[in-house]
């Protein structure tokens, strides 16, 4: 009788229904009782953020750095392992996992990912993907950079919230996966690369960019797509084509253009964010340079029984040569490696146009000196001046930083 009561059909009924679960958190809190509530991850080091046994589910993941190098977001690799497996079901650069496209930070608030502002050069990265496990979970961060993570403070703050259960998970429970794919330069088809050729044909999808290719049963629930449009002009006539359970041509899921995948009107030239879709990075209204977009599929996951291959054309009929990168998020059984082969540090480094290096050479020594000398006001002013740096507006950051340094020196 109680299971049919109307109160149990209310939205969010699970929040007031008794459960045998117990809540926990692993975080970077200072075990000495002081306030140094962070960890330092040096160059070449791998830190273990969580290592827990038994059945449970991660419910929230958070991290933040203060005045980090932009390359920290790509040099740091997040990995998650479930149930004692030595396969990293999640293997993604830290920033990209949290929606930071091509190391340009944009604040966003969406269904699964949020990037929240602090002051100027610091952002809180949040994930609300549920990550269940039956026999334990382990989460690590590898720093492949030349400096400790987190800029002058060399600090990374983190929280991992999770539940533990007395009983093993049901057999049908799928495991969370996330994988980073990239193609450093897509190969243009045809004799007129970089032009939108509406009459060109693509009747097999064989040359499409691939964002997910996995074998098993499961559901794809999200996608972050990043394009560095070095070809120029409108790049987004490429259709998504999703091949499920080994099917041939034509696929049962076939789209009509890249912007439609992410809920936009024709040829988005301004940034927007939404609960389930967004073009959150548009560096140029003329479509040149870096763009980033996301799509969450909680309401309409792509379900597969044996396999899925998610693809998109790079321009209609694949006639654009651009850099494509992506993060696919999905649940599946069995456990597999999230990323078949992670690229080298150099391959992961995004294009950072001038005067990026000039700003970096001014910013980090000045901020480090102010921090070590305990000049809090100067450190804050330097950080605020650097705000455009984190958005990819390097010329503006150079001017603001030069003005501030001229005043405080």
Helix content: 10-25%
Please, what is the average pLDDT? Answer: 96
Number of strands: 22
β content, as a range? 25-35%
What is the CA-based Rg, rounded?
A: 22 Å
CATH level-3 fold name of the largest domain: Jelly Rolls
CATH class of the largest domain: Mainly Beta
What's the story with the biggest beta sheet? 11 strands, mixed
Helix-and-strand structural type: alpha+beta
CATH architecture of the largest domain: Sandwich
Going by CATH, the homologous superfamily of the largest domain would be Protein of unknown function DUF2961
Count of DSSP-assigned helices: 8
How many angstroms does the end-to-end distance come to? 75 Å
Question: Helix and strand succession?
Answer: EEEHEEHEEEEEEEEEEEHEEEEEEHHHHH
Protein described:
- The chain is an alpha+beta fold and 409 residues long.
- The protein is 15% helix and 34% strand.
- It folds into three domains: 20-164, Protein of unknown function DUF2961 (Jelly Rolls, Sandwich); 176-348, Sandwich (Jelly Rolls), CATH 2.60.120.1390; 356-408.
- It has helices at residues 72-75, 94-97, 258-261, 345-348, 356-372, 376-385, 387-390, 394-408, and strands at residues 22-27, 46-52, 56-66, 76-82, 90-93, 108-109, 113-117, 122-127, 131-133, 137-143, 157-164, 175-183, 209-215, 217-229, 240-244, 253-254, 272-273, 277-282, 289-296, 302-304, 307-312, 323-333.
- α5 (356-372) packs antiparallel against α6, α5 packs parallel to α8 (394-408) and α6 packs antiparallel against α8.
- The protein is globular.
